């Protein structure tokens, strides 16, 4: 494979552009948003640097580096789901470990790759890039295609959800952002498909064009984000609106309902009722139990009972700090009907017993702060 300055320039520029962009964002964006966005842009940059190294011909000079980044590219697919759930407003969303099984298996081909001599590594790379499906080259071809197939799978699984929220979210976007999003999605789909076909049939032009397109797409997204800085916020709002629209909360204003719930729990102390049940609370709020359950689950990522217990324990903490009432009295004051239940839930949420908490509450400021953040209305 001859050295190609053109491939190295266009792909290398795109890669380093993404890395500089990610670095710049790390100094500007707050919290979780920062980590998610920087991860995607950074991974795009690293992938483009890898493509520059591969398609420019440098891979024949340093073939051992070819396989090392591949397992890490398998993370991109599951991360699309994670990013989407974050955009939906599910801050407490956690990934099922099953999503990371392919990443684990993607490490195995390295055991075959690492001991190879330089000439053997170059032969394997040429076989993969030229569409040789004989064994063991076919295993490595599938391995290289894995991250691309994973991205396609996760993207389509979101778009084709039975709830239809992916399609609805696009419809809820402002016209200019919707047009850009549709064009970008189609562009990326064609880019990935071209890449896959290139490797399957050994057509180098296909996966080179795909790699160039990736570089161009990154720059276009950056330019659009500068032109319309609120685009990501609009997309997030549309996804969250679609999520509510396709739920049992049709006809209910989620923000008003959350404010009402917060008022009833904190100001009117409904949490202190020992026999408080979901249907009772739903009736007070003129909602069905299913609607209230979904409202709490969607907004706070917890069940009704967990939500009430969070309020009970926070109130108990305040009473342990400010009053001299005995612990059993506090237990009943916040709505628990037994000492064992109170102690169990307190330890579960605060990591200690009520008695130990009372001795030195300042030690548990972090736990208390986390508890408060979980039930704070995010309007």
UniProtKB/TrEMBL annotation:
First and last residue of the signal peptide: none
Transmembrane segments: 6-24, 36-53, 65-84, 96-115, 135-160, 180-200
Keyword line: DNA-binding, Membrane, Transcription, Transcription regulation, Transmembrane, Transmembrane helix
Coiled-coil boundaries: none
HTH araC/xylS-type domain mapped to chain residues: 255-360
Record-linked InterPro entries: Homeodomain-like_sf (IPR009057), HTH_AraC (IPR018060), Tscrpt_reg_AraC-type_HTH (IPR020449)
Pfam family name, one: HTH_18
PROSITE patterns listed in its UniProt record: HTH_ARAC_FAMILY_2 (PS01124)
The protein's name: AraC family transcriptional regulator
Protein species of origin: Leptospira yanagawae
